[in-house]
Amino acid sequence: MEIIYWILIIALLIIGFIGLIYPIIPSVLFIFGAFLLYGFLFSFEPFNVWFWIIQVLFVILLFGADYLTNLIGVKKYGGSKAGIWGSTIGLLIGPFVIPVFGILIGPFFGAVIGEMVVNKTDWNTALKVGLGSLIGFISSVITKGIIQAIMVVYFLFVVL
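^ that's the sequence the OP posted. Answer follows.
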């Protein structure tokens, strides 16, 4: 039975990492779900107050990294709030409209469209903002992936 429990826990962790690519999936909830599932199926004993404090700090860092990398990427290339909003909307819609590539194309075109429609930005500037959005998104995925990996390694260190 223990193997089935671990398969369920690992499945939640994998879904958490899939959420890096499909942002509609709340990654951190699945990772926390794996921690809680471990506690219910095995024991909460390994999880002291410091474990939870550290994990919550990582969650705050995740949200901050997500917001800041997108903001920096768009702002560095001359974008505005319209570009940020367009990028975010494109990020959520893109994977469903164009499976696989939509995760990259969505934020790019969302930022371009947002800048052109709201701010009447010229095509070249809007393309630069789209590129900044794409760079911000890729940076965000890498940063969040590292943070989530640290969370999982810390969890495994505590329970094994």
